[in-house]
Amino acid sequence: MRPRQEIVETFSTFAQLENDKFSKWLTDVRLRRSMERYLQNSPDTKHLVEPAVTGYFWSLYWYKVWRLNPKLSNLAKQHLSAYLQETCYWAAGKILARFNINQYGLADYFQMGIAELEKILEGYNPEKNSSLKTYASIAFPSRLKDILRQGKEADICTNWGLLRKVSKKLVLEALDNAGLSPTQISQYRLAWTCFGMLYLQNQPDGTQKLPEPNRQLWADIANLYNSERHSQLNPPGSECSPEVIEERLTKTAIYLRAYLYPSVASINIYNQEEDTSQEFEIKDPLSESLIAQIIAQEEAQERKNQLSQMNQVLVSAFGQLDQQSQTIFDLYYQQGMTQQQIIQELKISQPTVCRRLLKGRDSLLAALLNWRRETENISVNANQIKEMSAALEEWLNINYAQSGLRISSV
Predict the structure, then answer these.
(1) Residue 408 near residue 147 (C-beta atoms within 8 A)
(2) How does pLDDT run across 232-291, given as a tens digit for each residue?
(3) Which H or E element spans position 18?
(4) Where does the RNA polymerase sigma-70 region domain lie (predicted)?
(5) Which end of the chain, N or C, is less packed with Cβ atoms under 10 Å?
(6) What is the fold, at CATH topology level, of the domain defined by 7-151?
(7) What is the rounded CA–CA span in Å between residue 246 and residue 196?
(8) DSSP string of 331-394?
(9) End-to-end CA distance of the chain
């Protein structure tokens, strides 16, 4: 995957996957214009020259817009979706390598991950986590594993599974994003609601793929739609045949996929609207205050120094672990082996593997807590222990897992 260097590109492009691997970056014209506009109107950010610092700044900015400004929350979420493309891509690759589900490839997991973006944003707390990207690199695999455990992965790639999974809010956002009129959105929404009432409620949550709706079901959905339209729609519109209902729901699934995972077609839609930038003429009442409040370069450097010190403490503490514990950590975190695979690889018992992982982690956490006591000259309470434990988990899953660190060979 080609790294994105420019900040505008980072927050306005989406990965196109072909043959289950990265192909190229596709530019969303509306998002590109949005970033260019905000950069021009934010002179205080010109001194942010390091890509990592600049990316952190704007991810925090758009996160706060998403959280605090309802008028621009959808725009902010799209910027953050673009920003986290690489993170989701690598998370999808990690899940693909660990779980042997033959009918699903990298693109499937990538799409499933992006669909969880809102939940990931809801779980992020900038006061407790080092950065959105670091948090997402843990949250994406966790969400994907939850989906697999719940058996939903077998349905996500069918239209009916996708319609079953999404919320009403997401359906309305996708229809609006596709450019439908308010009247059309109401009609499509009612068709989706009727579909859910007659079909989805009776389907189990197991791993079997959802069956194709039969002709009788389409007729029943059409009858329900035609009876409900008088009370649910204004104007009620004309009666719909089963064929029209099926067509609307199929299109709804297409619009959802385009909204969750932008494709060439959706990018072309944006190109057609290139001359209508009214959406980005909206004045953001929080813009000036957010720019002033979000972390300055000095604060970003201080955070960077803190993370560097924490890394040194953990590397040193890791070097104090016995050789067998280091080997087990290497196999578990860096090579992605399960405990059962480690048992077979090292010819040791499961209690030994569990004990080494738990004791090793406790030793690293103790070193981290001692460092915090010494640097801040405070006693550590339960909440801080919880925060340090989360920070250690981030370090093990990100810094250590991707570093190729071999303490014994240094």
Answers:
(1) no
(2) 898 989 999 999 999 999 999 888 877 765 433 333 333 333 333 333 333 343 444 444
(3) strand 13-18
(4) 317-364
(5) C
(6) Four Helix Bundle (Hemerythrin (Met), subunit A) (1.20.120)
(7) 13
(8) IIIIS---HHHHHHHHT--HHHHHHHHHHHHHHHHHHHHHHHHHHHT----HHHHHHHHHHHHH
(9) 30
